Amino acid sequence: MRTARRVRLLAATASAVAALALTACENGTGTRDEGASRPATTASAASTPTTATTATPKPSETAGGATGSGTGAGTGGSTSAPVRDTTTKKPSGGSGSAQVLCDGSDTAVTVQPLSRPLNHMLITVRNTGSRTCYLTYYPVLRFDEMQWVPQPAEETRPQAVTTLAPGESGYAGVLLSAADGSADGGTTGRRLAVAFQGMTPHSSGGAPATPSLPAKGVYYDSSLRVTYWQQDRNDALDW
User: Which pTM was predicted?
Assistant: First the structure.
């Protein structure tokens, strides 16, 4: 009888212990097997090299920021277009027609010293040819063996190139010397050469002219300046 009780008690105890062990495994408080039952990591996955990816640059990241628009941008930055002189309108000339420049071979050039305005001189160019000619920019003056070029009065730059039909005249004014005597290098010129410019500044426009000066010569100093060629006589003197 006692033996049967002991057997039943041992059986009940064993069942309780098994139940407690099962509960511990399910709620994570028990000890789990860390051995062979865990799936092994394959060697091929760990040893596979990672391939580097090179990003393709966007249009804005290319040299100079060029996007293929044809603006000339490149490695060195944008290419600047050449600067052009657009202040004075140049003669366009008709289709197939040559632009004729006024020079010493197709004009008559005279000079006239003036008392008013004081210390001024007027240059007159008359077209003696059979075709319309153009007076570009300003006359380049040289008295005797002068080693410097008188500069133009920029405020006299016209809106369009002076155009002379056959028989017409163009004008330029010259400031010979300072009225108050403040300039230096004063001297008397005996001979004068008037050079003409081409279609670009400081280029040759053809044969120069050598107008006669008064017998006593013309006094000038370092303040010597000249106007741009003018269509109207008054514009050449009113400055």
Answer: 0.61
